[in-house]
Automatic annotation (TrEMBL), chains A, B:
Domain of life: Bacteria
Location relative to the cell: Cytoplasm
Organism from which the protein derives: Nocardiopsis aegyptia
Any GO BP: L-proline biosynthetic process
Family designation: Belongs to the gamma-glutamyl phosphate reductase family.
The EC number(s) this enzyme carries: 1.2.1.41
Record's protein name: Gamma-glutamyl phosphate reductase
Boundaries of every Aldehyde dehydrogenase domain copy: 6-296
Annotated function: Catalyzes the NADPH-dependent reduction of L-glutamate 5-phosphate into L-glutamate 5-semialdehyde and phosphate. The product spontaneously undergoes cyclization to form 1-pyrroline-5-carboxylate.
Length: 424, 424
């Protein structure tokens, strides 16, 4: 075992001890600690922004794009907003202790399945330092210890933030080691975290496809995959075309850089001639480039569409653009739409636009994705929209949690069985 | 990719297709198919026992123990019993389609979270050929396609059984490829199954510790760990000692070879002198060898116990005996009992015997295991006992499912969101 591995495992072992002390704490203790965290963040904003300035300096020197610099930058106002997000988490119900099912067995044993924390959650993430606070607050509220492994570009910011968080926890009853930064900035320290099976209960990677795939590949700790979204909108033969135009445009263009934005539009052949000219106009107005199949391109040409329509290649069907690009294909039947989705979808969110109850039931029962929308934009797949409050990510896997992961999805359960000397 | 890898992946790809067709089937179709399976098993019992005889012959030639030969052997009566177990699964409710939560969101969107099958489940198992039928029936009932990878010692039996199962499915509406045997008997074919990520949704190993650990280590497909059980019984200072003697003896000796049998007995120092002589007598009568700490051995000597009491070493605290052996230790406080459990438990089942509500609440809130028993034998951790019907295994991990895994635990969920042209 290398030095950094030993260090990471020592940190994880402390997290495991902290998790044991954290699990039985009441909501009142956890909420008071979170309020202390929020207050301390605001009080120590200057220290945090000073550390952040180091990261920003380094990023500028490295030639980072202005957009990325902006994402990295913390201001006193942004620290206030981060603290406010913690206060919102305080308001959410505590899932720990919730009785999931229960009853009295025929032999008189009393059986209850109750929610318990997962234990130690590792978060490997890119990007903005606000994730550091957000993830820590969600983990604490759900009774979990957290190991934070942010990107090296935000190392100074994250170190300062975690120091503040730990200081805020002192004397609250929540163990200070419930929040720890994973030491080291190298790939090796991330790998050591992925191999800390038995110490870390689950790893949640938050970031781009490359990050997530590398964690899935290298981790021996169980991983929850999040975020990859190649979402489809299918416009059925029985669609209300006004709604279909609006939903397709909204799903793509309302915010194109997020995982629940649509990447491919599938159009039933029966409505292609009526629908395509209208949606092409709407997409053109929104500034979307269309990657169309032959039928789409010929309709666009015949219509004299103002839209930019380029030829769709095989690659387009499997690309999560995250940009103002949309692949558009005409399909002969709903089954062809379903086959296309089965082949190319990342199983995040698919939508159907239809007025046919039969088509809607058929689509819903056959699409195997975290969320299926009927006559609604794919953009609604979101913990906030679903009423779960803040989310730690959107799971695109089937085990444990699927779709937006709120506090409930950050728990496990245990069975409590009470008898009076029961023997088998 | 080697030839066998290609073959295994081709089988898994067919399973994935079958899973897509299986998912939307109604309970009526699945139940009718399971009844056909049960009937066909009985009709074709001769063929199955003939194939089984080949395995038994080979096992005898290999010098397999009589106990193992007995576990492997199928008789017409045993085939009848296997068919009856399938008929019992028919009676269980179908979890697919169950609404887990739902409601109308403030914006009028209708949100429902519904149960859906996991997809393709791989079962890697040792031992008795009845698992082949059992696992297949549970997977089909919960709408999942199954890939079966039994031990090479039962290859002929399993091949014959799977051929019968597939024949029984013909014309029922359930795709025949929903049940497949993984080709090959070598380690390489098992490894190919473990690497079929994207085709197989979850692997459930059923068998000994070595099998389970190797699957956990080598699989890139998500794994649900099952079965390892180093279970503790803690006799509190406030225990009813009659009940404590009975529970400790039952937990160890009622059936010692199973995962929910107790391996370690922890005794509060305050009751050690009163309790130990009695439990030693009871254990001696049941034929249990005690591995005791110093205090236990000195009480046994002073009492002139008829029990065989040997010295407990560090290794005893971490050994899942699965035999008529029990480690016994005296602890000064309940916190020492909890610390011992935290250090050595496999987080399967722990029991406390106490009449103190305070001690019971303290123990229950601090033990982090799949099941916590209060005044009941550890042997009750079982899908049948819990009222879940047949179980596919007992999960000792925290993600996805924890404790006995019935049909409900063999499902995922998806969100169905219905609107009327809703835009974000």
């Amino acid at each position: 075992m290398s030095e950094i591995e030993r260090e990471v495992h020592a940190v994880a072992a402390r997290a495991k001890d902290a998790a044991a002390d954290l699990a039985p704490l009441s909501r009142a203790v956890k909420d008071a600690a979170l309020l202390a965290v929020a207050d301390t963040l605001v009080k120590r904003a200057e220290e945090i922004t000073a550390a952040n300035a180091e990261d920003v300096e380094r990023a500028k020197a490295d030639g980072t794009t202005p957009a990325m610099i902006d994402r990295l930058t913390l201001t006193p106002q942004r620290v206030e907003a981060i603290a406010d997000a913690v206060r919102e988490i305080v308001e959410l119900p505590d899932p720990v202790g919730e009785s999931v099912r229960g009853g009295v067995l025929p032999n008189g044993l009393d059986l209850r399945q109750i929610r318990v924390p997962l234990g130690v959650i590792g978060i490997i993430y890119e990007g903005r330092p606000n994730v550091t606070v957000d993830a820590a607050a969600l983990c604490l509220k759900s009774g979990n210890a957290v190991l934070l492994r942010g990107s090296s570009s935000a190392y100074s910011s994250n170190s300062a933030i975690v120091a503040v968080l730990r200081e805020a926890l002192e004397g609250t009853g929540v163990p200070v080691d419930a929040v720890q930064l994973v030491p080291g900035r190298t790939r090796e320290s991330a790998t050591a975290l992925m191999r800390a099976r038995g110490l870390v209960d689950v790893l949640i990677p938050r970031g781009g496809k490359t990050l997530i795939q590398s964690v899935v590949r290298d981790s021996t700790v169980p991983v929850i995959e999040t975020g990859e979204g190649l979402c489809h909108v299918y416009v059925d033969a029985d669609a209300d075309l006004d709604k279909a135009v609006a939903i397709a445009t909204n799903a793509k263009a309302q915010r194109c850089s997020v995982c629940n934005a649509a990447e491919t539009l599938l159009v039933h052949a029966d409505v292609a001639d009526a629908f395509l000219p209208r949606v092409l106009d709407s997409l053109a107005e929104a500034g979307v480039t269309v990657h169309g199949d032959e039928r789409v391109r010929s309709v666009a040409a015949a219509h004299g569409s103002p839209a930019t329509v380029v030829e769709a290649t095989e690659e387009d069907w499997s690309t999560e653009y995250l940009s103002m690009d949309l692949a558009v294909r005409v399909v002969p039947t709903i089954d062809d739409a379903l086959a296309h989705i089965r082949r190319y979808s990342t199983q995040h969110t698919e939508a159907i636009v239809t007025d046919s109850l039969r088509a809607s039931r058929y689509f819903v029962s056959r699409v195997d994705s975290a969320a299926v929308m009927v006559n609604a934009s794919t953009r609604f797949t979101d913990g906030g929209e679903f009423g779960f409050g803040a989310e730690i990510g959107i799971s695109t896997q089937k085990l444990h949690a699927r779709g937006p992961m709120g506090l409930t999805e950050m728990t496990s359960t245990k069975y409590v069985v009470t008898g009076d000397g029961h023997l088998k």
